[in-house]
Amino acid sequence: MQLIIKHSQKLFSKLLLQLGIAHAGGQVISAIPLIERIKVSVTGFCALFLVVLISQSVQSQEAKMILIGSMGASSVILFALPSSPLAKPWPFLVGHIMSAGIGLALSLVFTELALLAALTIACVLMMMYILECMHPPAAATALVPVLASQHGPIGFEIMVPILINIVVFFFASQLLTRLILKRRWLKPAPNYDPVHLHNDHTPLKRLGLQTDDLRRAINSFDSVLAVSQEELETIYQQAQKLAYQRRSGEILSRDIMSSDVITASADMPLGMAWKLLHKHKISMLPVVNDERELLGVISSVDFLKNLTVPSYSGLLKHLNLMLVKRKHRKEVNNQVKDLMVTDVIAVKDTDHIVALVPLLSDIGLHHIPVLDSDQKLCGIITQSDLIGALYSVNQKP
Predict the structure, then answer these.
(1) How far apart, in whole angstroms, are the C-alpha atoms of residue 47 and residue 75?
(2) Residues 366-387, buried b or exposed e (16+ Cβ, 10 A)?
(3) Domains of the chain, first to last
(4) H or E element in which residue 246 lies
(5) Among 282, 251, 240, 272, which residue's Cα sits nearest to residue 367?
(6) Is 152 left (phi over 0), alpha (psi -120 to 50) or beta?
(7) Whole-angstrom Cα distance, residue 55 to residue 65?
(8) What is the model's pLDDT at position 152?
């Protein structure tokens, strides 16, 4: 009896897996944060509302609802699957317009519905491959002139309501995506180290997954992947972090930070801040208020980055004039707040050390302020601190 129950459970599990109800290792959609799901739903509502409202205003009664089905399907891809190559502007615009054109052209030649519909979809699929504009809802757009031809002669005028719907939905989706979902245009990934401005890969990529490796792997598939190369690279990097975190154990920022931090106040004279940097042989001072809230940072680089001097000797002369009161009273009376950087990257004391790696390597930071649960400064982590922690992890038996 137990054997029968066990076998039945196994068959039931396989059935759930095949139906897509159970997940063997893919993404669990319900794990997406509730706020993101609400944003996507609101964006879809607004987009379809605008499409129908504008269509009712500018089109005839017969034509105004012609593409609601296709636009509804497109909203799922554009808003809920934004990382998919199928959601980009080119597949959306070209896919819909090309499909409608094919449907219209074939409707002028063939009249038998079964043959016409099948031939239209076959041609649309082939052209989507050729033009690299795969967008599933566009197949429904192709059938609009096909179905319309069964009720009487059609001409090129049927393209007018189709184009109106496509254009309205496109601009509405682009606007709403930025206003509600807060997504921006993708920037091309630099082919060089953006911090040090040379042609090498960033430190994390030199031994890891290369862009060319990922591109070749994607192109080895014989079907279209519904995820972009950028997203795949992000997934890979996140998986690497999680794997390292699992191997290294729970080493947190507070375990490796320096807690005896030399700080500066916003109204401290620049000359005094420079002396602190020199005295303690450090290159950065966190700037805090009386409650130890982080206001910014000032580093030795901040003293130099806005200077324009022709040579090293000129630099020394300029620093001397700036910091020695008897020779340059005006500059020395400036305060830290006049020079400090307020756009500061900080971490929580409960962050795992794996979160520090890209900040101290690829981004190029040398010091990272650490904040406690009250958002007050509690420590500093340097590249040396992280190197020591990683060495200790690797020495574990």
Answers:
(1) 8
(2) ebbbbbeeeeebbbbbbeebbe
(3) 29-179 (no CATH), 188-248 (no CATH), 254-394 (3.10.580.10)
(4) helix 229-248
(5) 282
(6) left
(7) 7
(8) 82
DSSP sequence for 117-181 = HHHHHHHHHHHHHHHT---THHHHHHHHHHHHGGGS---GGGHHHHHHHHHHHHHHHHHHHHHTS
pLDDT at 120 over 90: yes
**Which tokens in the block code for residue 31?**
């794990």
Which residues pair with residue 379 across a beta bridge? Answer: 370
What single DSSP character describes residue 295?
Answer: E
Are 393 and 251 spatial neighbours (Cβ–Cβ below 8 Å)? yes
**Nearest-CA neighbor of 230 among 83, 92, 81?**
83
pTM: predicted TM-score of the whole model, two decimal places: 0.61
Task: Using alpha carbons, list the distances in angstroms from residue 137 to 50, 116, 340.
Answer: 19, 18, 53
Report residue 207 CA to chain centroid gap.
23
Contact 40, 173 (CB under 8 A): no
The CA-based angle 194-302-319, given to 5 degrees, is 130
List, in sequence order, every residue forming a beta bridge with 381; answer none if it has no partner.
368
8 A C-beta contact, residue 163 and residue 97: yes
Distance CA 194, CA 191 (A): 8
Task: Check whether 122 has a pLDDT greater than 90.
Answer: yes
Give tens-digit pLDDT for 98-109.
999 999 999 999
pLDDT higher than 50, residue 328: no
